[in-house]
Design a protein that fits this description.
Four Helix Bundle (Hemerythrin (Met), subunit A)
Length: 158
Amino acid sequence: MTNKQIIELVAQFKSNYEGEPWFGNSMREILNEVSPEIAFGTPTKKAHSLAQIVWHMVYWRQSLIKRLAGDIGYKGSMKSEDNWSTAERLLALGWPAIQELLHTSQQQLVELLEQQTDDLLELPYSEKATYRQLINGIIQHDLYHLGQVAYLKSIFSE
């Protein structure tokens, strides 16, 4: 039983989160410079705040975390109120707590993935996706939203 592919995926999570990714600054670098005022600002009434985007990233990471931790029945839903939390709810929680949720999800992902073998990657996560597709999807989802976070940070930092 090998875990070479899992190790490569874990390395991507680590690099993107707190390493030196090829695309620029890591999540930690970007988010460490975000104040609560910046985190909760929105460029338009219908846009999500940076805090809402980070919450949304954590929500979808939970699909993998919960499954790897043994909750086989868990599935995230685009219709869940937790998918995009309200600004009021997140303001009450606070920006440091939201950042800590992302940090905790990172630790859990890495820890749980490091316990797996490559056999996991071909197992079905759902009727439409394998665990490989889910893991790669979460990495892509994180990077997509990290671009939004960096852009919002640049708008509100001026």
